[in-house]
Structure to design on (269 residues):
């Protein structure tokens, strides 16, 4: 296993799986300007084709996934000070580029939520294609507690995941949503005992990393497009994605393996 260090972020190599950790445990991995720079550098590393990653698992170091934006200090803390003129400037400058990279990632993306996922940390968690949570973890739209509005794309994600009524309830009340309730609501995919969360996440990641990576990337792209597309638009989107998938070596291998009645050996190409 190899580990690469970035500013308040690390990447561990588990075969063809990259484990991306938010790494500021003393602050429950609250997001700072420095962390976002580290995450950008970590994504550069992960997305470099020669490194051969085919799936990403994001989790937090220590006892929390992410406690939201770090308001205690750092170069961008003024953007979240109640007296600042533009509390949204850091979003446009630093957060949105990272969130867009997660959306456009050309491989499956799993989030393993260990402990609190609050504020923008909840937004990060919900970016996963599969969202897994420790039994003791919880989700919280903490913004109203400091007089701000939800961000990190949460007002787009939440209504589509749990409906408008529950989305407004989470955001207006700012209450903790335990992992088991989040699963019941359909907000996340699976809940595991705390001690087995990462192990189970890595099992799923290993399975995905051995799959047809181009097709999996196209699948995640189709689902990102789907909520805003008409039925006819989405038929067109599927048509063009199928063209790209059909041109891959993995498609040829998949068909051959099916005809030969053997497991496919996908190479991600």
């Amino acid at each position: 296993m190899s580990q690469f260090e970035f500013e308040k972020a690390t990447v561990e190599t588990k075969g063809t799986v990259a484990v991306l950790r938010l790494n500021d445990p003393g602050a429950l991995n609250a997001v700072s300007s420095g962390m976002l720079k580290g995450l950008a550098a970590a994504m550069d590393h992960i997305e470099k084709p020669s490194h051969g990653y085919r799936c990403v698992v994001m989790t937090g170091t220590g006892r929390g996934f992410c406690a939201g934006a770090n308001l205690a200090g750092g170069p961008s803390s003024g953007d979240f000070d109640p007296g600042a003129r533009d509390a949204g400037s850091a979003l446009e400058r630093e957060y949105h580029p990272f969130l867009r990279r997660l959306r456009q990632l050309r491989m499956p993306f799993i989030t393993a939520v260990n402990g609190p996922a609050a504020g923008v940390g909840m937004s990060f968690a919900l970016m996963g294609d599969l969202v897994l949570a420790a039994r003791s973890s919880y989700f919280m739209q903490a913004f109203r507690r400091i007089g701000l509005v939800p961000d990190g794309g949460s007002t787009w994600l939440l209504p589509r995941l749990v409906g408008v009524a529950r989305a407004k309830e989470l955001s207006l009340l700012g209450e903790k949503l335990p992992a088991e309730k989040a699963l019941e609501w359909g907000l996340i995919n699976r809940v595991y005992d705390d001690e087995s969360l990462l192990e189970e996440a890595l099992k799923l990641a290993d399975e995905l990393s051995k799959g047809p990576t181009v097709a999996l990337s196209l699948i995640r792209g189709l689902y990102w497009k789907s909520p805003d597309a008409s039925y006819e638009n989405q038929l067109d989107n599927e048509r063009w994605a199928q063209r790209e998938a059909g041109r891959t070596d993995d498609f040829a291998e998949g068909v051959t393996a099916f005809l030969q009645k053997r497991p496919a050996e996908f190479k991600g190409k």
